[in-house]
UniProtKB/TrEMBL annotation:
Heme b binds at H199. This is Peroxidase. Substrate binds at P169. Removal of H(2)O(2), oxidation of toxic reductants, biosynthesis and degradation of lignin, suberization, auxin catabolism, response to environmental stresses such as wounding, pathogen attack and oxidative stress. These functions might be dependent on each isozyme/isoform in each plant tissue. Gene3D superfamilies: 1.10.520.10, Peroxidase, domain 2 (1.10.420.10). Signal peptide: none annotated. The keyword tRNA-binding does not apply. The gene is LOC107761204. GO terms for cellular component: extracellular region; plant-type cell wall. Its EC number is 1.11.1.7. Its cofactor is heme b; Ca(2+). It comes from Nicotiana tabacum (Common tobacco).
Amino acid sequence: MGKYELLMVILSMDIIVSGGRFDGGGYGFVDGLRMEYYMMSCPFAEGIVKNTVNRHLQADPTLAAALVRMHFHDCFVQGCDASVLIDSTKGGNAAEKDSPANLSLRGYEIIDEAKEELENQCPGVVSCADILAMAARDAVFFAGGPVYDIPKGRKDGRRSRIEDTINLPSPTLNSSELIRIFAQHGFSAQDMVALSGAHTLGVARCSSFKHRLSNFDSTHDVDPTLDAQFAKTLSKTCGGGDKSEQAFDTTKNDFDNDYFNALQRKSGVLFSDQTLYNSPRTRGIVNGYAFNQAMFFLDFQQAMVKMGLLDVKEGSSGEVRSNCRIIN
């Protein structure tokens, strides 16, 4: 796909969403969100977020993966409402960020910094949910991924409970289970595989894949879908303990299609990664993305826009927090 064709796709998505017709590929109608939502009320909002993200990622490129992951963990629990940013209260509410699934999230300081500057420029206007969605998008582009616009106008939620994180997909799920869970949020199997491609960035901790290396099941000590040499690499990584990290692919700070090439080599780090290639239902999608990076980029950006519309809070159903860590 040439640059002109890709630009036309982006422009057509802009027109559809700005006109109020975008429904997230059949997920649901979101009337209040618009591409130009802050054009009059805070015209420099996008620039402030992008500059803050770029400044931090230039110092630490691994934060690109962190921001994309944080956005996903936010949207899959109570929708894209910045509930993942809320701090627990002493002797009171245990918030999402203290769930075992979220303890390794990073990059909160980027959102805080962007929010502080936005509050100085446009008090009470730009939501934390929009800041997180924009930051994830800007992180993808910084790392070499596709450029795309997203509708804005999300409000921040008033609930953040640790028990709600049970809805996050586990790294032990197989392809059929992943398809079912993502379908509950309105995603197709193709959307699910495209979003899984976010693992082209970042690392996984040993605790999330060590079950593949010993006592895997009743007939196999090591997961038979693992390349034998790569299994040794993972075992060596885990020699450093549960918090030891293994990159998902060979270019952990670059947004590309190498993740899908790794799956073809039976070198997926998580069981939930490798299952995408092992399953006949999703193998063709993996092969397509491994062969055609432009197709992956296009499907990924569309799936990200769709994810950003999950259970969006509008009007009185939400608020604009003055501090992203605290409900007003």
